[in-house]
Amino acid sequence: MHPRDFSLDTLLANCAARYSNRLATVDGDQRLSWAELDARVTSLSRWLLAKGIAPGDRIALLLTDGAPFLTTLLASARIGAIAVLLNWRLAPAEIAWIVADAEPAMTFANPRFVHLLAEAAAGEIVEVDEHHDPHGAFETWANTGRPALAQPTLASDRPLYMMYTSGTTGKPKGCLQAGSAVATSAISFAQHRGFTHNERLLSVNPMFHVVGMQQVAAMLACGGTSVFAGRDDDNAAILDLLHREGCTTTSAFPTICFPWQTMEPVRNGVMPLTNYTGGAGMGRPQMYEFIERDWDARVVGGYGQTEICGFATFIDYADMLEHPRSIGWTLPHVQMTVLDPEGNRLPPGEEGELALRGPSVMLGYWRNPEASEAALGHGWLRTGDLGTMDERGLGYLLGRAKELIKTGGENVYPAEVDAVFAAMPEVADAGCCGVPDRQWGEAVKAFVVLKPGMELTREQITARFKGQIAGYKRPRYIEFVDQLPRDPIGKLLRRELSERPVTPDQTA
Q: Are residues 149 and 46 in contact, defined by beta-carbon separation less than 8 angstroms?
């Protein structure tokens, strides 16, 4: 088999043959075996063909995570359609812009999200009841045996899905990923983590984001079970689900797993969770100590992007403690280097732009050749992240290139400043950005969230920075806030911080 001739559909076929009666998904009260999931995909794909959907047509998904989402994604892939994964947290105008760009022939939508399509030309809208009504239209299409139709001839590197980037540099771009790329990433991920068919994933990251997609794809690679948390589940309900289903692995937001500390996470001496995946390179590995110590679970950090199908590197907790700014080593299918602005590779220790390559790199951006060339034109995926690598290939993240602060001709990486705050016991969260400065061009402004009951003055913060990093890197302004703006996967939105006003009383 040519390496690009397989996809998630290939992985599904293997699971259906090898693990036919084992659980593939748990979604509320619906439990599907691999054979049942495969049969539903077959039925829905034939329905789509009968509706006239052809290879290359776009099918938008505005669905909560669960069996219908996975079934629709796989059915689209089987006939060569491109799934457009819509973020239901967006506003109608944002959805409308993406839909106008993607031009879907059909949109599968949860009834609670249909209002988000009010301004969008979304093609035929198919409502999907998340409660698995056996008499509902979707369940009928997914369960009704249909005569086989002529299967289209599909290109080996055909796109599987289009996932729109967050748009931190302007309008969001549609990242096109081939089915072979997603499958390669899933297999590499599963092998690195040592997953087997006994794995049970607690899926809490939305599948319209690459982390959630990669986790579920890894279950297709190993024959494990995807246990989907409901959109309306609170922390207690998700923790109960974890125990009830004996989930062994997850990649949960800190906002979910941290409250579990006070909610009897270990029951009868057991925490079924054995693996937890989080971010890396943020300088705060100690925040996950309780997971290894109290839960006896393995913490693994990682770094990646939508454009490379999710995590591209991993680092174990012990290495995170020894190298708190590191993002680790690449997965077997990925190469990493550091490039200068002209695209030349830099030697170990030199600072530049982190770049990746391998079979899970995106095909490009939908209808955006200029952006595709900028990202891929040097033979590497230019990540937009600044970093270094040491002689052993260990990568270090310095921050986003567009977030680099230039003050008096000197470079300040926000992550360096954030790392100093991370060591302060009074600080719950902190982030910095560049703000205009008449004398130096830009100055560093920090936003600080204190832990409940803690006090810390600007003068005390300034004193603690002395001797830690250079004077030009220290915050010129400090604003105390209740919380920092972050996206759904916890990434700090520094652009929002930089737009907030600077006032004299914030001077450090």
A: yes
Residue with the larger pLDDT of the pair 236 and 255: 236
Strands 275-279 vs 249-250: parallel, antiparallel or unpaired: parallel
Dig out the tokens for 282 from the structure: 């943020």
| Segment (H or E) for 8 | helix 8-18
Start-to-end C-alpha separation, the chain: 62
Tokens of 35: 């054979």
* Residue 387, pLDDT above cutoff 60: yes
Q: Does domain 404-506 have CATH number 3.40.50.150?
A: no
**Which residues contact residue 508 at a Cβ distance below 8 angstroms, ignoring those fewer than 6 apart?**
446, 458, 459, 461, 462, 474, 475, 476, 477, 478
Buried b (16+ CB within 10 A) or exposed e, 93-106: ebbbbbbebbebbb
Q: Are 351 and 339 in contact (CB under 8 A)?
A: no
Exposed / middle / buried, residue 131 (Cβ in 10 Å: 0-12, 13-18, 19+):
exposed
Q: How many CA atoms lie within 13 A of 503 on its CB side?
A: 6
In order, the DSSP letters of 266-314 are SBTTB----EEEEE-SSS-GGGGHHHHHTS--EEEEEEEEGGGTEEEEE
Q: What whole-number distance in Å separates Cα of residue 149 and Cα of residue 153?
A: 12
d(CA 415, CA 431): 8
Residue 307's alpha-carbon distances to 162, 314, 318, 381, 479, in angstroms, are 10, 17, 28, 8, 34
Segment 19-72, tens digit of pLDDT: 999 999 999 999 999 999 999 999 999 999 999 999 999 999 999 999 999 999
Across-strand partners of 315? 301
Question: Which residue carries 């759904």 as its tokens?
Answer: 488
Structure tokens at 247: 């989930």
Residue pair 299/286 in contact by the 8 Å Cβ criterion:
no
| DSSP-derived pairing of the beta strands 298-305 and 124-127 | unpaired
Q: Cα separation of 357 and 352, whole Å?
A: 16
pLDDT at 167: 53
Q: Quote the tokens at residue 260.
A: 């579990």
List of residues 6+ apart from 54 with CB closer than 8 A:
79, 80, 81, 152
DSSP assignment of 68-120? HHHHHHHHHHHTT-EEEE--TTS-HHHHHHHHHHH--SEEEE-GGGGGGGTT-
d(CA 248, CA 227): 10
- Measure the CA–CA gap between 484 and 494, rounded to whole angstroms: 9
